[in-house]
Amino acid sequence: MEPSQHRIPEHLAAEIFRRAARLHLESQGQLPSYSVNELLEAGQAAQIPSEYIHQAIAELHASPKRPPRWFAWLVPLGILVLGGSGWHFVSRPGLEHPTALTIEQQLRQKVCRQCAFNGADLRGRNLSGLDLRGANLRGADLTGANLSQADLQGADLRGAILDQANLSSTNLAGANLSGASFQQANLAAADLSGAILQSAQLVAANLTGVQLQASRLQGSNFTGADLSFANLQGADVTS
Asked: CA 195 to CA 186: how far, in whole Å?
């Protein structure tokens, strides 16, 4: 049998991948550490469904000295795929209800464009100044969260709950806020130009100095809201 056709046992193959990947990264002056999202991307390349990646992570936390056998394949493969390509992956958009660990890993990066937080519990979180452009926050609970000066341009916040949240000076230009709730929220000086606010609830919200030009406001409830110095030029309020 030719040497290239020799069969290598699983435990040795995993070790070979791990060693080769480490040597590759060390040659580039990099340290092998990965976010959950990067492991998810590596798993996708290895055709491993995301739910098994999350299960493996949970098992590692529960019993760190006894990881699943197949997980030994994933980490070195992730090193080869991610380290070799130089990807900067943030999130797979199809993820439903991301785990707390995934959220923590993503938010720690401060730049989380197109991240998937749909349906996530983000109540009271400090997200001030984060770059969340294009993020999926559909149905997320952001009650009392601090999003001041965050960049949510083009984000999907349909049906999100932002009651009593701080969105002062936040960039929500072009965001989809249909059906979202902003009751008693602070949106002072926020940029909502071109945003979709159809059927949004802005009861008693602070909208002083807000930019609403060219926004779509059909069916929105502004009862008790403060719109002092708001710019509504070109806003569509027709039913």
From this structure: 17
| CA dist 160 → 13, 49, 145, 157 (Å) | 46, 28, 12, 5
Q: Which residue has the tokens 């606010």?
A: 197
Global pTM reads 0.59
Measured CA distances, 99 to 37, 42, 146, 203, 227 (Å): 11, 18, 20, 31, 37
The alpha carbon dihedral of 58, 59, 65, 71 has a sign of negative
Domain locations in the chain as residue ranges:
3-85, 97-239
Distance CA 18, CA 20 (A): 6
CATH architecture assigned to 97-239: 3 Solenoid (2.160)
- Residues near 221 by beta carbon (within 8 Å), at least 6 away in sequence: 200, 201, 202, 203
DSSP state, 211?
Answer: B
Please check the confidence at residue 40 and state whether its pLDDT lies above 50. yes
Q: Which residues pair with 216 in a beta bridge?
A: 196, 236
Tell me how far apart the alpha carbons of residues 91 and 60 are, in angstroms, rounded to a whole number: 21
Query: Bridge-partner residues for 151, per DSSP?
Result: 131, 171
What is the distance in angstroms between the CA of the first residue and the CA of the last residue of the chain? 77
**Mean of pLDDT values over 218-222:** 96
Distances, alpha carbon 214 to alpha carbons 53, 146, 173, 211, in Å: 43, 26, 10, 9
